[in-house]
Amino acid sequence: MNLADVQEAITRAHQQEWARVVAALTRRFGDLDVAEEAAAEAFATAVERWPADGIPPNPGAWLTTTANRKAIDRIRRESKRDDKHKEAQMLYDNPAVPSVPLGAIDDDRLRLIFTCCHPALAMESRVALTLRMIGGLTVAEIARAFLVQESAMGQRITRAKAKIKAARIPYRVPSADDLSPRLSGVLAVLYLVFNEGYLATGPGTDPVRSDLTAEAIRLTRLIRALMPEDGEVAGLLALMLLIEARRDARISASGELVAIDEQDRGAWDAALIAEGHRLVRERLAAAAAGVAPGRYQILAAINAVHTSARDVRDTDWAQVVALYDQLVRIDASPIVVLNRAIAVAELDGPDVALTAVDRLEDTLAGYHAYHATRADLLRRLGRGRQARAAYDRAIELSGNTAEIAYLTRRRDQLAQTRAQPG
Amino acid sequence: MQYLVSVIEQFLPGGVREDETGSATADEMAAINAFNDGLQSEGHWVFAGGLAAPDTATVIDNRSGEALFTDGPFVESKEHLGGFWIIEAADLDVALKLAAEASKACNRKVEVRPFL
Question: Per the database record, which ranges form the DUF6596 domain (chain A) (predicted)?
Fold first, then answer.
């Protein structure tokens, strides 16, 4: 057996089967801890055995069966056997219980997602649990991604699992009347993971963490497969794809952020853009049929407008502003208003935009993008001194190395312009 | 599965109760009664009660076998337990839904905690 083939098979099985195995075990044993540990042991056993025994014809079934045995072993090992464990063991040992049908296993993954993203858990715990239980990332990998000690991340996950058990956070898809708010909670977790990858913070980190953006997209694809009818799931996936498509053009060779108007549009990923545009068109058709789009769908549509322009000068700014107007109606948060102003600058001029941006000072004075936007508008209005002060503040507040490099260059160019005679 | 739903009573700086009487208003009481009726008819009711102000509390320490009585609440805080429900609920989702109704009815923040 070729070792490279086996490793590839294990990697593929890990990507495709991890969540399925954890979800099936959680259902059977009613305990996330048991499910997680047994799943990890099953994959460790695969690493040990597959090179010698060969790749099983159905890796997923092999892993689930092995994980089930590991879970039973653990329960038998533990002297303390509460009733639930006994019950689970009897269920497992009873040959009359039919194996779980495939469709229900898919439902189990969705149940697991809703459990991990439960609103009674802190946001950081939801993110960590989702990456561990659904994404299959190790505790060490998650700790690295969020720049915390592995022991601290381990504790965070352990505490969350303990709360799920003690407070009996249910393992099920919410009922129809709760589904919409609960699903938006799940999507918020995935968007947060994506954004941390897209604009990574911290002096020692890469400016773009493609491992995190890729994982967020993979998990959103999974939810899309499980809930193909939901517009916001499609919207979030489209949004991520259209942002991810510009990844390589967004950072220069010297590690500097490249603004969208300066990007090499030929370096955008055409396949991702095509997929994103397909999803946006699907949602536009639904909107035309009277289904009101949510925020992710509108954000995806805005990104579709940007990625439809072969040259920045071809951008349909009126359409972008119209979409932001629609977004403001459902989410009038200062950040949305700020982003709308950026589009307004292109349509109505930087002076109109600056008036709108200045009104946000009370709420956004501590936000780097507020100062970066002001700096750019002031620069375009020829107000160099004020622009410089705004760049300074933006640089101070930004945690992203590529953005700091970009803002610093812009600020220093300002100084050069000013130094020129005349 | 049983959950404790604690009613969080807010205090103004200086330890003054926001509501001097310390009890619910007539409107709040009516809402609480209606909520309690619902709990009973849906099978969620275990027990509930409102508490007198924290300065009526007495702390007892008999760990040494010699009971020591101290006047006043155990902790000085801006928030105190104003009352509580004990509810029966299948899982946390059910408990949270009931607690949300409880918060609305008594017009105060509440906290949900599972019993062991």
Answer: 182-282
